[in-house]
Amino acid sequence: MNAELIVLLVVVVTALGFDFTNGFHDTGNAMATSIATGALRPKIAVALSASLNLVGAFLSVEVAATVAKGVVNLGNVGGQALLTIVFAGLIGGIIWNLATWLLGIPSSSSHALFGGLIGAAIASLGMSGVAWSGVLSKVVIPALLAPVVAGFVATAGTWLIYRITSNIHEETKEKGFRLGQIGSASLVSLAHGTNDAQKTMGVIFLALVAHGTISADADMPFWVKLACALAIAAGTYLGGWRVIRTLGKGLVEIAAPQGMAAEASSAAIILTSSHLGLPLSTTHVATGSILGTGLGRKGAEVRWGVARRMALAWMITLPSAALVGALCWGLANIVGGLPGVLVVFAVLIALSIWMYLRSRRDPVDSGNVNADWDGGLVPTEVPGPDAHITVDKRERGIDVNVLKNSADGTTAATRSHIPTMKGTTQQ
Description:
Number of helices: 13
Strand order of the largest sheet: 1-2
Number of strands: 2
Order of helices and strands: HHHHHHHHHHHHHEE
Strand content: under 5%
Shape: globular
Distance between the termini: 68 Å
Low-confidence stretches: 383-427
Helix content: 55-70%
Mean pLDDT: 80
């Protein structure tokens, strides 16, 4: 086994690692609203999403072709040099995914990957190493349009839903739309598989071309499809609860009709982009849709401070991942050859372990993902599983530490500094 083959194996493993982080980072795009409204229990939601991501990965390879041939100029480099570029780009994408997951920021895994590849290509080849026309037409422009279009569609859909169902009893409406959410959230998961799993397929295809295993005009190998589908499904099943919490509870206080409108608009846009071969950011689409539901429902609360932080993260994702990709290529190049690749891989492992351990200081999981949002990612107080305090929401002046277990079986915590009125709570 020569050094170039070992580098190829390391690149493939790293690509599947990126696919895994993409899965748990983006689970919230499909399931955050269904979990927030109680349409699905958290663990059932991620299991369903993982299954449908697995299926969706086999439905199309249009996006994979765009990633493989539309970002890096294949004619300018080949062999181990191209493998090192791809490897460094993947590291940039993974580190950005993990950092934003730790902070609970639903940023774009797609842009993290493209940013890493662009940075590594520029560091290695200069500006000519990037297919700028493809980046502009198939990455940048869709990124600008996606959240806006999704927001308009979701706003209109939410307004129509509430207008049409205005005479239906609220409890009946919520129950019906929760059932509808199961179908719409499933469709988003399927759409996510058709778009995001293929991005990693494209990267592995690029690595295989660099190694000479296949030609640039070859069909996507089945084993690549299968490996990427399994990796993104496994990551999705892990949950990514920190990002799910931000999307489901931090952005908009969402009801079941809004959730269904958001999921339906997201699914329609993602499936359309997959058909056209556009590697769209599903995070941008889902976030735009959720914001749109807040605008489409009269009296709904939209937390614009959270939205601004997310927008800032979107703006810096490409350049930040590009910087990491460039630095990783630089380190690998300084050390040189296979040892350089292994050194950078060791750095990735060390940073991944550190961020995981850091996340366990303030854990967000299936037990507290639905706790009331009090301004921070991690709930300040979460009741135990035996808490069953009911609250009469028609009364004012309630001061409680624990709300009744929500419909999805998780618990929620809130506080008010208004003095408690006798008789407003019972245990």
